[in-house]
Request: fold
Amino acid sequence: MDVRIKKTAEEMSLEAALIFAETIRKKPNCVLGLATGSTPLKMYSELIRMHKNEGLDFSRVITFNLDEYLGLPSEHNQSYRYFMNDVLFNHINIKKENTFVLNGTAKDPQLYCDAYEMLIKALGGIEIQLLGIGGNGHIAFNEPGSPRNSRTRIVDLTKETIAANSDGRFFKDPKDVPTQALSMGVGAIMDAKQIVLIADKTSKADAIYKTVEGPVTEDVPASFLQEHQNSIIIVDEAAASKLEKQYA
Ligand code: F6R
Reply:
């Protein structure tokens, strides 16, 4: 694990954006794994800026998102498809047909999830996967207890995750949050050639401590990243505040 501590969320976001931009410049037809949530917003703004001011070219880039609420149609303003269009895809020169977000209204969700993974494999696998982290250590919607070998599937959301996603940022009322989602599994995430996890704020400090310095355990799904050969954890000082060892 390459742990990088940045002073601010802005510096964390810039560092992550630079890593993704380098990947795109080296391999213009690369396959990126993307995340939703609050944490990547500044990073996506920076990628948009690089596209507009520096000509960062997304015309051959392919993307796969980690997760989607089960039962939410893509037009719903809280769907992750809507979110990705709004905060990134509508502002760069990516072809919409090259952007894949799990379909929360698929008729046969498990068959659909299997096909999603098959498509990733057929395209050569994910070059670089972006992750946020839940306060309980979840990655994508792999809640505590998710096995290392879990694949893309239907998952139940914990009360904590439902509360976190209805704190006014996304849904207004916990009752409105779907209780299930489709999520890439831990095993599917670990198949990525490189993984970049970003986290800011003290609310993530405990999860970051367990992820980086705790034992590798299903109880903290992000801790499996310790076993990935090319994982980078970029955190601001607040999220790093419980780490005990020294990092660059
Ligand atoms: C979203 C996702 C989630 C979030 C996590 C943190 O696609 O996979 O695991 O990364 O819940 O969310 P924020 O960034 O809103 O704190």
